[in-house]
Amino acid sequence: MSNWGQATKRGAHVSTFFFVYTVVIILVCFSAAVLALSAYVVSHRKRLILQAIFFGAYTFEEISIFYEEWLFQNQPVDPGTYYEIFNPVIRILLGAAVLASLWIMLLRILDVSDKRVRWVPPCVFVVLCAVVVLLMPYGRVRQWCFYTLRQLFILFALSFAVYMWKTSKDEAYRARLYKLRHRLLILAILWACILVEDTFIILIAPIPSHDSEFLLLYLSQRNFSENLMMLYIAYFCVKQSLESLTLRFEAPPVAAQEGDLDNHIEEILPSFASKHKLSPREREVLALVIEGKDNRTIANELILSEGTIKTHVHNITRKCGVTNREELKQAFWSN
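and the corresponding structure tokens:
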């Protein structure tokens, strides 16, 4: 077989791989968005809307990349435009939607409601992207800076979460964040892989020849480590959405509670109560205990005697394998 024929065969194999690979990423992200939206309909949890926006925006971005790959797959590489940033406005807007929804989800976990903290970082990201596109000269460094701004945003978000955990004096708050340490560590490792991959492909690796089997890798404008990070996030979001749908099917939702603490309790309570086989009344008492209310206050709210509340609390601690309220709170937030 001629060299041209071998190159064509390799190109066909790579094209098939990229086709299947991209379709899988799109389907996973689209499914995560649809499940989150479905779970929101039955549970009315705002974080699910944010998840839907997060995966929806990323799905549209993958579709746009997929379209560009197939549009340019049979065209020769033009060294004069190789490091061009295609459709920068769409890239900036979709990137901002992905990062802003991720950032707001993190702030809800951290109980940060300040609107300036919520919106200033995404706005700064958009401005910096525009500065790179409009003011930096064409070349490797411009393209690298444009895509690396995403990684700087993610690094900022991860650092902010660590800062909030280290500086808080609320033990229940710290315990709730501490159980996320492994997920944050994996995200940090994936973040480093994304940065290394972008740095190598954009700043170090040479422009491939037209018959190179790695041509589509360079033309795809994608980052495999970033795709892996999205799949990792999708796993937990899909799992949460399915659990929410299952729990709501088994126990239809009551009126929504207000406040960050109540929101966190409501999210954890169904699975915690199911795990320890608590009765419906014990679930009510447990929620009020976690809020920090004493037996008399709980008795007044539930219109029960204080002795009955003491019995319920004793039964709850026994079923959960703890000896007092503080241990019960630690077990609940570590669930």
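(Above: one complete record from the training split.) The two ends are 61 Å apart (CA to CA).
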